[in-house]
Amino acid sequence: MRYTRVHQRGALTNPDEVLRREAIELTLEGCRWAEALGAEELVVWSAFDGYDYHLQADHTAMWTRAVEAFREVCDAFPRPAAQSRSPPPARRFCSRRRLAARTLGSRSTSGTA
After folding, report:
1. What SS3 class is residue 2?
2. Which pTM does this prediction carry?
3. Among residues 13, 39, 57, 98, which one has the fewest Cβ atoms lying within 10 Å of its Cβ?
């Protein structure tokens, strides 16, 4: 899910309540479509965060607005079924020590990472 250029000052973090509400409604609509299509998840990617430089934004206020927006969206589309899904199959991971040994060309891979 990607927001339009209208949300350059932030979508779910926008200081303008009207634009933030529009972004929340767009996200809810995306969730409705995802649910109707049988999607397992909806990825929310805000290309615009509302600032260019670190000291240009009130990060605490933005964080609060983002949490409130996500809370609203997640409350509207809870996924209790996701909690009862089977866990994904186990994956094989190599230890950091083995990876380092392989990277450095060493033959010694004994021990644990």
Report:
1. strand
2. 0.66
3. 39
Q: How far apart are CA 44 and CA 70, in angstroms?
A: 10
Q: Among 15, 8, 32, which Cα is nearest to 69's?
A: 15
If you ran DSSP here, which 8-state letter would residue 101 be given? H
Tens digit of each residue's pLDDT (9 = 90 or more) over 23-46: 999 999 999 999 899 888 888 887
DSSP state string for 37-67: TT-S----B-S--S-SSGGGS-HHHHHHHHH
Under 8 Å between Cβ of 34 and 42:
yes
CA 4 to chain centre: 18
Task: Give the integer Cα–Cα distance in Å for 56 and 14.
Answer: 14
Q: How far apart are CA 103 and CA 109, in angstroms?
A: 11
Q: What angle do CA 39, 69, 27 make, to 5 degrees?
A: 35
- Considering Cα of 16, then 22, then 24, then 26, what sign does the dihedral take? negative
78: helix, strand or coil: coil
